[in-house]
Design goal:
By secondary structure, the chain is of the alpha/beta class. The protein has two domains: about 280 residues, FAD/NAD(P)-binding domain, CATH 3.50.50.60; about 180 residues, FAD/NAD(P)-binding domain. The chain is built from 14 helices and 20 strands. The chain has a five-stranded parallel beta sheet, with no helix packed on it. Strands 3-2-1-7 form a four-stranded parallel beta sheet, with helices on one face. A hairpin with a 4-residue loop joins strand 4 and strand 5. Helix 1 packs across helix 11, helix 5 packs across helix 6 and helix 11 packs parallel to helix 13. The two termini are about 20 Å apart. It binds NADP nicotinamide-adenine-dinucleotide phosphate. The site of NADP nicotinamide-adenine-dinucleotide phosphate has 25 residues, from loops. Its EC number is 1.14.13.-. GO terms for molecular function: monooxygenase activity.
């Protein structure tokens, strides 16, 4: 790739991040970009997660691009297929498809100092060069299987929720589900009516809030089309609600008991059985792990063919799951709703910056990036949904739009100033990280273990605040935060 009009850009991934970045470049009239996608279709996590019941648990009017409204969502919490179709429509409407190269998994990215360009290699041996490198591979793209002894000995089918094996017929089967996070609370109620018996293994009880579902009728769609402010008002209402909830996570801990009370009320209303309710009552601060929104999870657990097991798992055997009390829970199928490898970020991709430094070494104690996007020594690399940009509650698409705008500004700056590369200054990145970590140390996420923290106890995933505060932090790009390298310097 090369351009006479501006820097060329290589984006990795066609999830909301990659598409959002491409939209921003298109809008700015910057057409010299390619999107490399390992799969054969667009969609990121919304392509991969096809488990029964998969849906967004943030309302779609808010969980969508601000510039690409959809008045036709079938329901407020739209299902996976519809979200993927929405993404496809955005790609087609904005003529992004010609920019996408499918079947191109980037295995390494190296900054070529002599030419101030990134060289990307794919698993098929192809090479791409670009001035700007935007990995948009997300935090939740690589499924994590638990480290449980004997996991490989199970004799029936077993799979992870993000790699659902649709060829396995669950009807009339005894199913073991391990994990009770955001994915499990969606697929457990969806498969419960089909299975003969289901044992759900819960290590810690999640906080569950009601999900204010609305199935939109024809009149809603007409109203959203003819009176767009009604659609905007709904988006605004959920933005505001999430902002208030986000305050409780870091700045206003006094609000947490209120959310705990709402969740307990929800539990009491939906689970009449005292013993089951006791098992389902969380023993940690609300918000410490991701809060869940569901109206059908608790009722599913109360069905006669479901058993919630809270005794720890000792090992997996050919016949099922053995708990530490010696009981063997026989199963025909095991489903792992055990989450993702969330702390490795770019993961298996080998990324080398200035002087051959490795990103994996820079991040050996935990990933960090200035504003979640740039890392000293890795010029012209801008991450989307990078370290500390996940939300405890809120729409990640809002965060991605902030990042796309910021990166768009960087690309325009490079085009305008004739600089070939920009490298965030060490001291700027260090001060930012110190401020961030000191805020994070006051957050609710320090109070338990979750996928937000790595094995060193560092919170690598979450943004400590509201989305508005992130918007404010990324609204302008201060060129003084960066060393601008011209062609000769970079060489
Ligand atoms: P998760 O939230 O990380 O949950 C993993 C579950 O597996 C937890 O209950 C965990 O227990 C359990 N677990 C892990 N290892 C275990 C082991 N060795 N033994 C027993 N239990 C084990 O994963 P997820 O449900 O896939 O969700 C991941 C993230 O994806 C969510 O937080 C959310 O951000 C996103 N998501 C979003 C939506 C949406 O609607 N937008 C839907 C699904 C997922 P502990 O809690 O005790 O660790």
């Amino acid at each position: 790739m090369s351009s006479s009009t501006g820097p060329s850009v290589a984006i990795v991934g066609t999830g909301f991040g990659g598409i959002g970045m491409a939209l921003e470049l298109k809008r700015a009239g910057l057409d010299d970009f390619v999107i490399l996608e390992k799969g054969d279709d667009i969609g990121g996590v919304w392509r991969e997660n096809t488990y029964p019941g998969a849906a967004c648990d943030i309302p779609s009017p808010y969980y969508s691009f601000s510039t690409e409204p959809n008045p036709a969502w079938s329901s407020r919490f739209s299902p996976q297929g519809e979200i993927k179709e929405y993404m496809r429509r955005v790609v087609n409407d904005n003529d992004l498809m010609p920019h996408i190269r499918f079947g191109a998994e980037v295995t390494s990215a190296t900054f070529d100092e002599a030419h101030a360009q990134w060289r990307l290699a794919t698993d098929t041996g192809e090479e791409f060069t670009a001035d700007v490198f935007v990995p948009a591979t997300g935090q939740l793209s690589r499924p994590a299987l638990p480290h449980i002894e004997g996991i490989e000995t199970f004799r029936g089918p077993s799979f992870h929720s993000a790699e659902w094996d649709h060829s396995v017929d669950l009807r009339g089967k005894r199913v073991a589900v391990i994990g009770t996070g955001a994915s499990a609370v969606q697929f457990v109620p969806a498969i419960q009516p089909d299975v003969e018996h289901m044992t759900v293994f819960q290590r810690s009880a999640p906080w569950v809030l009601p999900r204010p579902e609305v199935v939109y009728k024809q009149w809603h769609h007409t109203m959203f089309r003819k009176l767009p402010f009604t659609r905007v008002a709904e988006r605004f209402a959920f933005w505001l609600l999430c902002e208030v909830l986000a305050l409780a996570l870091v700045d206003v801990p006094k609000m947490r008991p209120l959310f705990a009370a709402i969740a307990r009320f929800h539990l009491r209303r939906q689970v009449p059985d005292r013993r089951l309710r006791a098992k389902l009552t969380p023993d940690y601060e609300p918000g410490c792990k991701r809060g869940l929104f569901s109206g059908d999870y608790y009722p599913a657990l109360g069905r006669p063919n479901v058993h919630l097991e809270t005794t720890g798992i000792e090992r997996i055997e050919p016949e099922g799951v053995r708990t530490t009390d010696g009981t063997l829970h026989r199963a025909d199928v095991i489903i792992y709703g055990t989450g993702f490898k969330t702390s490795e970020f770019l993961g298996p991709m080998a990324v080398h910056g200035l002087d051959g430094r490795k990103l994996a070494d820079e991040w050996s104690e935990g990933a960090h990036a200035y504003l979640g996007m740039t890392v000293p020594g890795f010029p012209n690399m801008f991450l989307m949904y990078g370290p500390n940009t996940n939300l405890g509650v809120g729409s990640i698409i809002y965060m991605l739009e902030c990042q796309a705008r910021y990166i768009g500004k960087a690309v325009r700056l490079l085009a305008r100033d004739g600089a070939r590369a920009m490298d965030v200054k060490e001291d700027v990145a260090r001060r930012f990280d110190q401020r961030l970590q000191s805020r994070l140390n006051r957050s609710v996420w320090t109070l338990c273990s979750s996928w937000y923290r790595n094995e060193h106890g560092r919170i690598t995933n979450n943004w400590p605040g509201t989305v508005s505060s992130y918007r404010l932090a990324t609204r302008t790009l201060d060129p003084d935060d960066y060393r601008l390298l011209d062609r000769e310097e970079a060489a």
